[in-house]
Amino acid sequence: MANCSSPSSSSSSSSFDSANNGKTWIINGIMAGVAIAAAAGAHSYLTRFNKFRSRVVGIIPARFASSRFQGKPLIQILGKPMIQRTWERAKLAATLDHVVVATDDEKIAECCRQFGADVVMTAESCRNGAERCNEAVQKLGKKYDIVVNIQGDEPLIEPEIIDGIVKALQAAPDAVFSTAVTSLKPVDANDPNRVKCVVDNRDYAIYFSRGLIPFNKSGKVNPHFPYLLHLGIQSYDAKFLKIYSDLQPTPLQLEEDLEQLKVLENGYKMKVIKVDHDAHGVDTPEDVEKIESLMRERNLS
Q1: Are 236 and 146 in contact (CB under 8 A)?
Q2: CB burial string 77-94: b at 16+ within 10 A, e below
Q3: Four-CA torsion 279, 281, 286, 290, nearest 10 degrees
Q4: Tell me: the pLDDT tens digits for 193-245?
Q5: Which of 13, 38, 45, 180 is most buried (CB neighbours < 10 A)?
């Protein structure tokens, strides 16, 4: 006997197929909508990320009075004031939208104007470079997302290091501060003018000290340990910088005389980048001769 479908079963099958096709179109439409929304969301996120902390100013704090080296910013290094050499290096950094000198001394201000630098006059009462940077950025009257504190006594600072700490802060939303370290030379291990640093395995700062850290139980420098030397340059989230200046001095900060410790003692995160850099800071008059000898060796004018 032949098997034939009844008209009613054929009609039911047709209706079932139509319903399935309709559901498929709906599901495909929903998936397409989700994909479009996801793509739009990703584009929006990336756009925001690319603009995150994008406006950057470099500030070089400079003061004439110094217990260790009075008039240091104006000391001549191969025929140019040290502050000028630092400013010229900072101007080469690609991430900086503006570079200014912040000072409380008219002699320094006039010197800087003569070689073309923008100058912001700040109060003598500023206790450290961060407070001077904060006052300067407020007086500039423009909105910046990152403020880079460029030490005026680093006349050979590489612009790549400046760019490096800026990009590190831009890439670390949980950090409010970034800085740089390099390898510590054994000869500098016990020099209190050479600040040491230790970091965690994600390159966030744990501690800074004028003493050797870590310090092993033998009391001797371990020639195989990768000790880190802090380079003075540092950058701040601009909103945090306002908060920082209002924070009270902390015990570790006062004991070590290191302003970055106030950041850590108050529970904020600090991102650290490691760079290959010979430390060329000028802390004493004797350092000037070392800098000049190095510049002659490298044919730097």
Answers
A1: yes
A2: beeebbbbbbbbbbeebe
A3: 50
A4: 899 999 999 999 999 999 999 999 999 999 999 999 999 899 999 999 999 98
A5: 180
Q: CA nearest 93: which of 153, 152, 157, 41?
A: 157
Give the residue carrying structure tokens 């006349």: 155
Q: E-assigned strands of the chain?
A: 56-62, 76-77, 80-81, 98-103, 118-121, 146-149, 177-183, 196-199, 205-209, 228-237, 270-274
Give the global pTM.
0.79
Bond from prior residue into 285 cis (ω within 30 degrees of 0): no
C-alpha to C-alpha distances, 69 to 150, 181, 251, nearest whole angstrom: 18, 24, 26
Report residue 40 as tokens: 């739009």
**CA 241/CA 94 separation, integer angstroms:** 22
| Lookup result for tokens 């371990």 | 222
For β-strands 196-199 and 228-237, DSSP reports them as antiparallel
Question: What are the φ and ψ backbone dihedral angles of 99, each rounded to 5 degrees?
Answer: -130, 130
**What DSSP character marks residue 204?**
B
